[in-house]
Each structure stands twice: as structure tokens, then as C-alpha cells.
Amino acid sequence: MRKKHAIHNEEACDYLLASNKFNDWVVTTAFYSALHFVQHEIFPISEIGETFSDLNSYYAKVLKKKNKGLSKHSATIQLVNSKLPKCSSYYRWLYDACMNSRYTNYSVSNKKAKLARDYLRVLRNHLTK
């Protein structure tokens, strides 16, 4: 399911990039595509004698108990840093760019939109599933 969702978001990203009209959404769909791709790559994960099939179950049972203030986005960033270090800088850039374009400034340049798409492509190239 996660990979299908990632591909769906990636296709939306490409469609929006070609339109040259909604660069904030290019960045947003690039990030959420990356999120689903990395979660597909990381899970299932085993810890504390249990296997977790997705972030929600792992977060509820393991991560939330370790750090009550940890958001799911921050948890994913930590998991990418530890499990997919070659992807970490691209993932973090996409996360930061998405949060900025969604919540601070929806006016995103063509250059930044293209870079978001390029970073998604590079990130994907480091994944094996």
C-alpha cells in the first residue's frame, strides 16, 4: 500500500511540475512520495521482540514511550537517518521544503520545484524495495 501511495504522489508531482503553476504542491507531493517510499523501505521493523508492519504501530508501541514529544514526522526523520543514511539529507531537505511551502510561503520557484523532484529521484535510487 505504501509503495502504491508513493507512486501515486510521484505521478502527481510530475503532473504538477509539468504544469508550471503549483510549485508549492510539487514540493509537497515530492515530500509525501518520499515519506511513503522510505516507510515502505524501512518497514517491517523488529524491536523489543516484536515486528511492526508500519510506522503507526511502531510509533505507538516503541517511539511514543521513549519520547512523548516526538512527532511522527520527527520519528520518520530519525528512522531515515539510522536505517537509510544515504537518503537522509535528501529526505530532510524535502521535509523542510514541504513545511516551508505549505505553512510559510506557497510561492515556490521553478528551480526549487525541479530540485524537489530531482531529490525525490535521487532518494528513490538509494532504495532497494
What does this structure look like?
The protein has helices at residues 2-19, 23-42, 55-66, 72-83, 88-103, 110-125, and strands at 45-47, 50-52. The chain has one domain (2-125): Four Helix Bundle (Hemerythrin (Met), subunit A). Helix 1 (2-19) packs antiparallel against helix 2 (23-42), helix 2 packs antiparallel against helix 5 (88-103) and helix 2 packs parallel to helix 6. A hairpin with a 2-residue loop joins strand 1 and strand 2 (50-52). The chain is built from 6 helices and 2 strands, in the order ααββαααα. It has a two-stranded antiparallel sheet. The chain is 73% helix and 5% strand. With 129 residues, it is mainly α. It is globular, with a radius of gyration of 15 Å. The model has no long low-confidence stretch (mean pLDDT 95).
Strand neighbour order, sheet with most strands: 1-2
Q: Based on helices, strands and strand pairing, what is the structural class?
A: mainly alpha
Q: How many runs of DSSP E, i.e. beta strands?
A: 2
Question: Which term fits the overall shape?
Answer: globular
Order of helices and strands: HHEEHHHH
Tell me the β content.
Answer: under 5%
What profile does the largest beta sheet have? 2 strands, antiparallel
Helical proportion, percent range: over 70%
Radius of gyration, in Å, reads: 15 Å
Key phrases:
single chain, 129 residues, mainly alpha, Four Helix Bundle (Hemerythrin (Met), subunit A), two-stranded antiparallel sheet, 6 helices, 5% strand
Topology of this structure?
Elements: H1 2-19, H2 23-42, E1 45-47, E2 50-52, H3 55-66, H4 72-83, H5 88-103, H6 110-125
Antiparallel strand pairs: 1-2
Helix pairs in contact: 1-2, 1-6, 2-4, 2-5, 2-6, 4-5, 5-6
